[in-house]
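Weekly puzzle thread! Below is a chain. First person to post its structure in token form gets bragging rights.
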Amino acid sequence: MRQDDAQTRRAPIRTTTLRTMQLERKRIVAVSVYDAIFARMAEEAGVDVLLVGDSLGMVVQGAATTLGVTLDEMIYHAKAVVRATSRVHVVVDLPFLTYQVSPEQAIESAGRVLKESGAHAIKMEGGRSIAASIRRVVDAGIPVMGHVGLTPQHVHKFGGFRLQGRSLAEADAIAEDARQVEEAGAYATVLEGLPAALAARISETSNIPTIGIGAGPHCSGQVLVSYDLLGLTPEGVPSFVRQYESFYARGVQAMQRFSAETREGQFPEGTSHPPP
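Winning reply:
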């Protein structure tokens, strides 16, 4: 690694850093994490953005959707991530019905996240319908990352976690959503569950970085859930995920060895007989 690259990696990553990376065509790497250990792993690996996603409802809490996650839960997990990092850019999802009611509600929720967790930005799902709220939050001095396409908080409206933008009308509507999110002042936008051609179309005309998840290779960067990419999700992994490890299977094997050694008196050392 060149010295200037090493210095860049040590510098804190800000919203302006991501814009510079987009202009210089340097791919942005983002990972969804929910606790201190995973945050440390990601930062040591050189990840640029950590997203504390409301996907924790499904990944950590075992729910079928993200809809039950509360603002207090998001702040709790965000605190853990922020404590464990010093350089990486931390973004926190505003959960369902903590910003859709009014711009004032959005400002209050976003302000709580930044004040109580120490995170650097929040993320809001939706397009034209929340553009006014994005603008108000940004005007209050809070950076906003947008999220269009397959927005998990609208899962029941979509009839499941399905690819969006397959028809020309749907594609045009999502492209307009992305345009209005940018116009409202978002500094980046997540594009989820879109055909690659549509994500490329949006990315080519966007003046802010686009972060893809299940949206093909043409975005400014990519994000995956840490549990998915590490192979900690035993079933139901989305088809676009590439698993770089198999930690779930390895964890089961490790616990099997611990169980066997405990039952056989091999752990802890010096154990030779079962208790009376």
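Puzzle host: Confirmed. Bonus trivia for everyone else. The first strand starts at residue 28 and ends at 32.
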